Amino acid sequence: MFSTGTNLLTHLLKRNCYIPARFAQYGVNATKEQLGMRWQVPWGKHTDPGFRNQHAATHAQEISKNDILPVVTIRNVWTWMQSMCHHPYAAQWEHYEKCPHLKVAKDKTQQQQQVYDWNNVTVTYGAGKMSYQSLVHLWNDWYSSYMNPSASYPLIMIRMEDLVFHTESTISQVCACAGGQLQQPFQFVHDSAKKDSPGHDTRTGYVEAWIKYGKPMQVEAGFDHDDYQATMQSLSRTLMDTFSYQNPPSSQG
User: H or E stretch including 156?
Assistant: First the structure.
């Protein structure tokens, strides 16, 4: 998913983890990807998992998807929406006057009461376009697809916040789960993990991330009350509870 630390995860794994069998096969001059740490899953790192069996990213057509262990990053929906407001990537929706602007005005009733409906979001993936009811529904639906009990493949889901505040412990567990070997000493990513990724915001390095994500959440996440209420109305409680995410305080006390 966009803006959830995917580049940070990639850099950390490539610097610190390798698969011993791959090292034995390719030797000391192997690339990081030859050592088992790919920068994206074959269906595309941001692509909705519903496309897993129908799409293969460029240069990944020959890779067996059943031989891949996806590592999926998730971020608290409130700070994720804040970030998407600043840099929406491939997501498009009407949010020029306010953001996240989850609902838009529709026709009035016969009693002249204003009717509101969800502000649809369209995302252009490499596999094609998909529409979601709103920005918060994009977060709900995208991650719920990975957590669907009918999914027939293993995966790891980690919180971006743990990548920032518990970096070595998180990467060590991911590496071990994949059958990898951790290299020593552990190498952190001090500069922006996006500096070599065109089109990304490169302002946040390691120290900046600690400061940024260590702050208490703003009242109603800094959104207007309508967006706060709309988020609370539609937010997946399953996802929030599973990853121990908290909601920001309400302006109503």
Answer: strand 156-159
